[in-house]
Amino acid sequence: MFVTFEGADRSGKSTQAQLLRDALEAEGREVVLTREPGGTELGERVRALVLDGPQMGAWAEAALFAASRAEHVEEVIRPALDRGAVVICDRYLDSSLAYQGIGRGLGVDAVLDLNLQVTGGLLPDVTVLLVLEPEVAAARAGRPDRLEREGAGLQGRVAEGYLELAERFPERIVVVDAARPPEEIAEEIHDRLRQRS
Ligand code: TYD
What we know:
There is one protein chain. The protein is an alpha/beta fold. The chain has one domain: Rossmann fold (3-Layer(aba) Sandwich). It contains nine helices and five strands, in the order E-H-E-H-H-E-H-H-E-H-H-H-E-H. It has helices at residues 13-26, 41-52, 58-82, 93-103, 108-119, 134-139, 146-149, 152-168, 182-196; strands at residues 2-7, 31-35, 86-90, 126-131, 173-177. A five-stranded parallel beta sheet has the order 2-3-1-4-5, sandwiched between helices. Helix 3 (58-82) runs antiparallel to helix 4 (93-103), helix 3 (58-82) packs across helix 5 and helix 4 (93-103) packs antiparallel against helix 5. The longest helix is centred in the middle third of the chain and has 25 residues, at 58-82. It starts with a strand and ends with a helix. The relative contact order is 0.20. Bound molecules: thymidine-5'-diphosphate.
């Protein structure tokens, strides 16, 4: 099973990804928890480039995320799925659809095509979308990266973009209200995955 977590910056995805890993491991499953951009040596370098690097055009940004993803699928995700592990990924291709496709205006279909090409068509079985008002997310502490420093415009488009994606891919994307205590959210996610598997 391939599960991804998505949401705007500071929606609590990483915490939820970890809590799900703990819950599945407690049931005796092998779990590989990984993240994007990152997950491989190339991915970590791409991460530094896109999050702290120079200004770049929208397609350069989309292509860098796609390069990181291609390597990640080949080196980490597919081998783990092939040996029967559950793979949990903190952000995956829907981040590119929401940020580059919708936020940057490249178009969902164009960015989806690129990403299906570079991943050999690997889509998640389930994508958990954590939804939080952009103002609430922005108020959570943390050091802002290059995309967050662009401020409310991009973040607002991304938040709406994710809801558009949830409508477009209802069979895969599960929408979860992220403005609640983490344990409560974790329980809901675990229950909803159980219903699907
Ligand atoms: P990260 O520090 O992982 O953010 P968070 O902790 O909120 O997940 O930074 C990832 C940033 O990169 C985030 O702003 C979203 C952006 N991003 C894209 O724009 N496109 C992508 O394909 C991916 C994977 C991330």
